[in-house]
Amino acid sequence: MTAMTSSPGASRNDRPLLNRRLAEFGTTIFAEMSALAVRTGAINLGQGFPDTDGPEQVREAAVRALRDGRGNQYPPGPGVPELRAAIAAHQERRYGLAFDPDREVLVTAGATEAIAASLLALVEPGDEVIALEPYYDSYAASIALAGGTRVPVTLRPGDGPRGGAADRRFSLDLDELRAAVTPRTRLLLLNTPHNPTGTVLTREELAEIAKLAVERDLLVVTDEVYEHLVFDEGGHVPLVSFPGMRERTVTIGSAGKTFSFTGWKVGWITATPELVTAVRSAKQFLTFVSSGPFQYAVAEALALPDAYFTSFLDDMRAKRELLASGLTAAGFEVYRPAGTYFITTDVRPLGESDGLAFCRALPERAGVVAIPNAVFYDHRDQGAPFVRFAFCKQTPVLEEAVARLKSL
Ligand code: PMP
Ligand code: GLN
């Protein structure tokens, strides 16, 4: 940037205003693409937020908390006891995992703060952090804020274990992962179910990752915010459940995805008391606390009967089918996701090669907004032809989007 000392918006003393750690990060793609959707009136299948709110009774629980004066003042630093107890009970009920609600649970301002606080707390400048590429954009920024060095391991597109188009997925090459670990590696930053590819790491892959983490004595931060969006039988398997992982794993969850209240920003970590204490040290200077009344509501949401979680998943499964078959009919190559509410596609069969240019033009061409996966890669060429569509939208909206895309 050129120095313009007279302008407060530019720089002082020939120095750019934005520090070096953040210099590579502009506006997030989600903000850019949602703004484009608003500007053009296009259907927004870009940013991953549902277009309907979560359960009425959960919303009512938030209203009640507000009215009763629960959470209107600073809640306790670790989160309100009701929510910490509900998070621990959820881990026990779903996965048979025991966490002490007083010492092993920390409520955060969404998963985003959990990621940032974990990295700020656990990474020294110069430490290497391995992340699966394409990675959710805040990973890169949080590693940078912590002064860490990002080491991407690329998920590669190909046929799945059974072969054939229906099974196509982005896979982790375990040898590549092993080779990426050096004496400077401090931490593995994982994400399963994986945004944006929809890959769910298999039990076998998780077991190998766990073995590697134990062998090389690595810390693991695992972002499992899509834990309730695994479409295959057997459901989500938390990485922390593998041998040797309990003592080294920070698991991240979020109410935004599971209960369709992304604006409430209620997330959490579960980990050992030592890890929770470390992450809390960073978290207390980021937000200290957040979302007071919503914490009480999310406590009630986590205790909803299994029927809620099942019908949420069934609804998303039907939407996955709708959008996947629509995108296929429109000429995209579709990677049918095993988890999350995103579908990654390859635009090359449409005669395109640059997903970013494709997404910038798509609102004008077809009245739909999508996300170019390239921005989630260090090796941009690897991600160039891939484009992500979100299906957490009402059925008529998806139907209309599919009809529009057929014009391509
Ligand atoms: N991790 C992943 C993989 C995500 O997709 C998202 C956002 N949707 C987040 C973290 C952030 O979650 P939150 O909104 O709870 O901060
Ligand atoms: N996680 C959501 C997505 O992947 C968006 C979150 C955000 O806008 N930062 O689309």
Quickly list its features.
408 residues; Aspartate Aminotransferase, domain 1; seven-stranded mixed sheet; four-stranded antiparallel sheet; 17% strand; disordered N terminus; binds 4'-deoxy-4'-aminopyridoxal-5'-phosphate; binds glutamine
| Alpha-carbon distance between the two ends | 39 Å
Give the C-level CATH assignment of the largest domain: Alpha Beta
**Multimerization status:** single chain
Bound chemical compounds: 4'-deoxy-4'-aminopyridoxal-5'-phosphate, glutamine
> Mind describing the biggest β-sheet?
7 strands, mixed
The averaged pLDDT comes out at 95
Keywords: Amino-acid biosynthesis, Aminotransferase, Cytoplasm, Pyridoxal phosphate, Transferase
Pathway: Amino-acid biosynthesis; L-lysine biosynthesis via DAP pathway; LL-2,6-diaminopimelate from (S)-tetrahydrodipicolinate (succinylase route): step 2/3
Subunit structure: Homodimer.
Subcellular location: Cytoplasm
Characterization of this structure:
This protein is α/β, with parallel strands linked by helices and 408 residues long. It has two domains: 18-47 and 307-405, Aspartate Aminotransferase, domain 1 (Alpha-Beta Complex), CATH 3.90.1150; 56-302, 3-Layer(aba) Sandwich (Aspartate Aminotransferase, domain 2). The protein has 14 helices and 17 strands. It has helices at 29-40, 56-67, 81-95, 110-122, 137-145, 174-180, 203-215, 255-259, 273-283, 292-302, 306-329, 355-366, 380-383, 395-405; strands spanning 11-12, 15-16, 43-44, 105-109, 128-133, 149-154, 156-158, 169-171, 185-191, 219-223, 249-254, 266-270, 333-335, 342-346, 368-369, 371-372, 386-390. The strands form five sheets. Strands 4-12-11-10-9-5-6 form a seven-stranded mixed β-sheet, sandwiched between helices. Strands 13-14-17-16 form a four-stranded antiparallel β-sheet. A two-stranded antiparallel ribbon has the order 1-2. The longest helix is centred in the last third of the chain and has 24 residues, at 306-329. The model is unreliable at 1-7 (pLDDT under 50). Glutamine is lined by residues 28, 30, 47-48, 195.
